[in-house]
């Protein structure tokens, strides 16, 4: 199919003969996908895998246009059967306490849905042009909300001020700290040089003698206390977030994809999921008066993660938790605010150091070659 004919075919989704596939294996070719689908559902007009513009690698999604509408009906019926089978068996396994070896895996029967080497491929009717336009308009209307307001809504998560519900038991000292922190946040958010980092938490009111490793242990301990339903829901949120970040060409895709696959395999094992959650913590760093580790703590720390859903959950379980530190001295947790100027300088410094190392290594190679030539 030539390029003009292909673009023409993409525009006729109003006919209802185009199917959108996701979770397509990255190693699968268009020919293999076409052969797989036509063998069960009927003749297709085209099969098109979607590739990333930046990496030129497959995104794991595809479009298929069938010749007959009956084939589309078969695909959608198969998808419904697969979803029904999955839901029935997944809840049985979640409630199964026998601890069988295969309780964490669910393989669909070969005649149910679309599968490739035991991997389920999800099928949906492709959106029509009018539906795509409606979705884009909806996104545009959401984006019209000023970024400052969005960031403030994010920063309000876990906010506890005097007179608010949930402040029972908080000491007057901690309430005063929270109030001052909120005033500082509002001042910063009026400055365009600051932005909220949804993958980074700021933990205040930390005991002065606490070390970074001890704070990390506190976080891990609180993660281990999450109930099974919360673990299951969080795992699903993280998987969805990672899948969406892959489709938006987010960086560090390989490690995220690995975590997503591991979570999918172990989603029915809360214990294993809790262990996987620990991998989402990138760094826990208590800020001190100077660069020496023995120097006095400034009473706050930053916790970097690779998942916004996980960061939000950490905020919920740590913020105002009387068991984390002491009953009187409770953690004040909020999303961190980054200074764009400082980040720019930091990136510039890293790039400069990288170039220096690169030049040094190339000079060393030149010297080695000169010595080798001289020796000859």
In a few lines, what is going on in this structure?
This protein is α+β, with helices and mostly antiparallel strands and 376 residues long. The protein has twelve helices and nine strands.
Task: Outline the structure in words.
The chain has 376 residues and is α+β, with helices and mostly antiparallel strands. It contains twelve helices and nine strands. It has a five-stranded antiparallel β-sheet with strand order 2-3-1-5-4, sandwiched between helices. Strand 7 and strand 8 form a beta hairpin. The N terminus is likely disordered. This is Nucleolar protein NOP4 and rrm domain-containing protein. GO terms for molecular function: mRNA binding. It comes from Cryptosporidium canis. Its main location: nucleus. Keywords: Nucleus, Repeat, RNA-binding.
| Major β-sheet strand ordering | 2-3-1-5-4
Which band does the percent of strand residues land in? 15-25%
Task: Report low-confidence residues grouped into runs of 5 or more.
Answer: 1-10, 97-104, 247-251
CA-based shape = globular
Percentage of residues assigned to helices: 40-55%
* Gyration radius, in Å: 26 Å
Keywords: Nucleus, Repeat, RNA-binding
Subcellular location: Nucleus
Main location: nucleus
GO molecular function: mRNA binding
């Amino acid at each position: 199919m030539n390029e003009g004919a292909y673009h023409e075919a993409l525009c006729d989704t109003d006919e209802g003969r185009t199917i959108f596939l996701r979770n397509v294996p990255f190693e699968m070719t268009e020919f293999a996908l076409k052969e797989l689908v036509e063998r069960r559902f009927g003749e297709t007009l085209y099969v098109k895998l979607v590739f990333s513009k930046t990496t030129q690698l497959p995104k794991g999604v595809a479009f298929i246009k069938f010749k007959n509408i009956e084939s589309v009906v078969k695909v959608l019926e198969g998808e419904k059967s697969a979803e029904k089978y999955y839901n029935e068996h997944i809840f049985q396994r979640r409630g199964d306490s026998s601890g069988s070896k295969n309780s964490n895996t669910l393989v669909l029967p070969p005649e149910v849905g679309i599968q490739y080497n035991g991997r389920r491929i999800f099928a949906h009717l492709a959106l029509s042009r009018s539906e795509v336009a409606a979705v884009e308009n909806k996104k545009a209307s959401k984006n019209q909300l000023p970024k400052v307001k969005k960031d403030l809504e994010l920063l309000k998560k876990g906010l506890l001020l005097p007179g608010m519900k949930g402040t029972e038991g908080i000491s007057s000292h901690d309430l005063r700290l929270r109030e001052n922190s909120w005033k500082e946040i509002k001042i910063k958010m009026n400055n365009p040089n600051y932005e909220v980092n949804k993958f980074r938490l700021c933990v205040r009111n930390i005991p002065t003698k606490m070390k970074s490793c001890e704070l990390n242990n506190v976080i891990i301990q609180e993660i281990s206390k999450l109930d099974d339903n919360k673990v299951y829901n969080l795992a699903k949120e993280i998987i969805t977030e990672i899948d969406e970040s892959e489709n938006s060409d987010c960086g560090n895709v390989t490690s995220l994809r690995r975590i997503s696959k591991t979570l999918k395999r172990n989603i029915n094992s809360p214990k294993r999921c809790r262990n996987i959650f620990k991998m989402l913590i990138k760094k826990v760093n208590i800020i001190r008066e100077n660069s020496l580790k023995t120097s006095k703590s400034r009473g706050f720390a930053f916790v970097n993660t690779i998942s916004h859903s996980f960061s939000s959950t950490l905020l919920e379980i740590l913020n105002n938790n009387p068991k984390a530190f002491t009953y009187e001295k409770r953690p004040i947790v909020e999303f961190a605010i980054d200074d764009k100027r400082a980040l720019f300088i930091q990136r510039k410094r890293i790039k400069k150091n990288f170039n220096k190392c690169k030049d040094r290594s190339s000079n060393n190679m030149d010297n080695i070659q000169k010595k080798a030539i001289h020796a000859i």
